[in-house]
Design goal:
Number of strands: 4
Number of helices: 5
Largest sheet: 2 strands, antiparallel
Shape: globular
Strand order of the largest sheet: 1-2
Helix content: 55-70%
Structural class: alpha+beta
Amino acid sequence: MVQCKDMRAFFVRWAATTFAVFIATALVSGITAENTEALILAGLLLGILNAVVRPVLLVLSLPLIVLSFGLVILLINAMLLDFVGGGLIEGFHVDRFSSALLGSIVISVVSRGINHLLGESNRVEVRVRSHTSQNIPNPGEMKSVEGRVIEHESDPK
């Protein structure tokens, strides 16, 4: 069952991606959207590809990602943008791969910034204070723990 919060997060990410594609069309020559409908559809398709296809491509290219210190991820993002702009959506065009590469960088930075500002990162910072124990090297030391919220109840207030 899809919860309301999940749908909200989907629409926020879709809006962020669509806005990022709009910014890329404004900043990068070679990326054009003829109308708002093409822009919205491009944002939707790019979001779906990023959610479904991109993780598979990342796993398959993991050795290359490690060897290139992550630069292959830029190429994967550019290939997905080039795919979307290659005629799948009438009115949205990416003329050359160099435009797709620069556009994918712009889209990544803008959408990540928007998601961060809107708090859609699903990250929680927890500080744990350990009890005095002989098994712990530094009793009472503050430790940082990172994680993701998988499921939560409504916040007690």
